[in-house]
Amino acid sequence: MKLGKVEFCHFLQILALFLCLSGMNQAELSRSRSKPYFQSGRTRTKRSWVWNQFFVLEEYMGTDPLYVGKLHSDVDKGDGSIKYILSGEGASSIFIIDENTGDIHATKRLDREEQAYYTLRAQALDRLTNKPVEPESEFVIKIQDINDNEPKFLDGPYTAGVPEMSPVGTSVVQVTATDADDPTYGNSARVVYSILQGQPYFSVEPKTGVIKTALPNMDREAKDQYLLVIQAKDMVGQNGGLSGTTSVTVTLTDVNDNPPRFPRRSYQYNVPESLPVASVVARIKAADADVGPNAEMEYKIVDGDGLGVFKISVDKDTQEGIIIIQKELDFEAKTSYTLRIEAANMHVDPRFLSLGPFSDMTTVKIIVEDVDEPPVFTSRLYSMVVSEAAKVGTIIGTVAAHDPDASNSPVRYSIDRNTDLERYFNIDANSGVITTAKLLDRETNAVHNITVLAMESQNPAQIGRGYVAITILDINDNAPEFAMEYETTVCENAQPGQVIQKISAIDKDDPPNGHQFYFSLTAEAANNHNFTLQDNKDNTATVLTRRNGFRRQEQSVFYLPIFIVDSGSPSLSSTNTLTIRVCDCDADGIAQTCNAEAYILPAGLSTGALIAILACVLTLLVLVLLIVTMRRRKKEPLIFDEERDIRENIVRYDDEGGGEEDTEAFDMAALRNLNIIRDTKTRRDVTPEIQFLSRPTFKSIPDNVIFREFIWERLKEADVDPCAPPYDSLQTYAFEGNGSVAESLSSLDSISSNSDQNYDYLSDWGPRFKRLADMYGTGPDCLYS
């Protein structure tokens, strides 16, 4: 039945094509039965031709223009008096007309997919007058489709996913192909789909393009991706039709169809007993072939003797079970633990419960290894008390620690001095008894927090720490005193019984029941006529005046001794002096000035007079200093004394010396002959000029004798002159003398080629003498060789 319908439709299409070609290719103008008539003026001529559509096949491949049709008017007698013109879409560029015969041809290849029809206008004109003999008429040239376009998948290639284990016929994705040919004419645009690659796993609906699963129980863990090739063919899939293909990548998505399984039935781990709490003991993992949420697991300890010692959690990234210590391990108490651990999927799919329980069990054995542990104190914190009156050596308390290992090594104690910098306490190394090493003061430090170290005798590297808080008990060892420095004033016009100050006291001690102070005047001040003291019984007291008429001229300051006693046992007391100043006050009793000098100055000298006196005194001092200076300058001689040291250089002021190269600045001849006669006397009051002393002749005397005599004479002069500085020092000059054993040490002579001195030994003295060795050595690398 289906095949018969297709053949019938195909027959109808061929019949329609035949009728169009036979009845429309000669679309000529036929004369109307009503004859044309002409009217003058604005009257119109009755149309005398009838139009039909022209059809032309697309994709014409011939070399000659394609004949489309013919135009003819009844007015045309065939004598050439009528010409035809064509206008509109494609006129002259695509379609041309023979103006004599009215034949229309297509000069270019036409494509229906680019333009399906063209609208043109035709007109018949008188060749002589060039006037229309017929009204202009419009006609259409339709492009007749052929099967020249293959189906195309505009959205390809495709990707899709389908859950694994899906039943047969589960829809995966729909593909769609588009054919640019005319869907209203023939089968050129009728497409059917088929699968070229991907069988037998998938199939495709021929008409709709829907891809479906073709096999049941496709397992993602076996193969998770398939590549399909889908074909779309026009002409209803018949031979000669055009086709196009696309690829479809189908991925199997995961479902929870695999239960977790431990690779091993039991595990064993060794851990040291010193492993801190919250440390990771081991990581275990149950294998699950699923991925994503379907592979998420939870672990729990369901049985065993380590339920309270260990716990297990899950690593969200790796899905591992992490076993963690909850309590400290002790090898001496328990050497091993056994745990039963279960791993189960968190998301179970009821469709696959038949595959088995989605959980698994394993056994984990944890072996505790013995380690050498540091000593452990019997208490983490010791609290002790001692009185601040305790003598040195008083026992405060005892700490105790033991070695938790089986060896039970003896323990020695010491105090961490970083916590007892002042060394107030000592501890017995063997017994752990803590005693005082210094006198204690609660007011300086009320609580001492010290750290006691306990180390094994056999392994001193193992050190335990204990913490001791020593509280100092208070005794009454501080007398009360004023709470602050009081600035007390009394007005000159104060009345008897007027309150001028309220005082209080403080005490550094800290009695259990609080402070209670008692105030009174000392015995010598109890009967004074100026002030009195009233104890308020609340640790305060009030100072009152006894009289009126205080005057600053008579007495500007009063000192009132106050006796304060505390309530300690035994009680302590102190005398504190309250300073009271007499002041001039305004009407409101506010002090204005408290200086007694304000009344004294008017009777004495004014400020201007005092300044004048000081100026005179300063002037006299300046005159005395000038006179003394002038007298000292007159005593100095104007010429050089022959006995003065002739070694003084006479140079021009503000002139820089020449250093070692200046041979004229000092005359060595004076040292060689002490009896040279000084002919010229130089005045000290004349501006000095540089004088070059000529070298006088003298007889040769041994150099050592010259120096000895010179020093001896200067020594005798210094001994008899009480004002001369000590002369018992030898000044060194750049002169060694002819008789010197060392001869000259000048570097100027050392570099001479005839020098007998060899300085090569300097290179053996180390890097500090390398520079000297390079300068004076005779080696091949000498600087001056």
Automatic annotation (TrEMBL):
Q: Which domain of life is it from?
A: Eukaryota
- Keywords linked to the UniProt accession: Calcium, Cell adhesion, Cell membrane, Cleavage on pair of basic residues, Glycoprotein, Membrane, Metal-binding, Repeat, Signal, Transmembrane, Transmembrane helix
Q: Which SMART domains match?
A: CA
Transmembrane stretches in the record are: 599-628
Q: Please give the name of this protein.
A: Cadherin-7
- Function, in words: Cadherins are calcium-dependent cell adhesion proteins.
Chief subcellular location equals: membrane
- One annotated Gene Ontology cellular component of this protein: catenin complex
> How is this protein situated with respect to the membrane?
Single-pass type I membrane protein
Residues of the signal peptide: 1-27
**Pfam families in the record, alphabetically?**
CADH_Y-type_LIR, Cadherin
Decide whether keyword Signal is in the record: yes
Q: Which organism is it from?
A: Nipponia nippon
